[in-house]
Design brief:
Layout: H1 5-24, H2 27-35, E1 50-54, E2 69-73, H3 74-80, H4 85-94
Antiparallel strand pairs: 1-2
């Protein structure tokens, strides 16, 4: 029996979320948090105020790999939603903000 595409996508996303949970427990992630910098706005934050963001969101095919996850402040993470980097840059520029790190 072939599963509908949306179910296999849901399974893949669940698998990637589990990988993200594993990354959050790693020393690599703890070092990134300790730096205290939001990837998007560049501001400094205490580690407890930073979240893990997938540059290419899971819903858009992104993976939970070291090359695709960054620290982000809650404000940037919330505003970015499931945008791709180019979409985020366009959004940031439309607000009159600099989108560079």
């Amino acid at each position: 029996m072939v599963m509908p595409e949306f179910e296999t996508d849901d399974i893949a996303i669940r698998r990637e979320k589990e990988k993200a949970r594993e990354l959050r427990r790693s020393q690599w992630w703890k070092r990134k948090l300790a730096r205290g910098r939001c990837y998007y706005c560049g501001r400094s934050f205490p580690p407890g105020e930073l979240t893990m963001d997938h540059i290419v969101p899971l819903a858009r095919g992104g993976k939970s790999t070291k090359g695709n996850v960054v620290t982000a402040c809650k404000e940037c993470n919330t505003k970015k939603k499931s945008m791709l980097p180019i979409e985020w840059e366009e959004y940031s520029l439309s607000l009159g903000k600099d989108s560079d790190k």
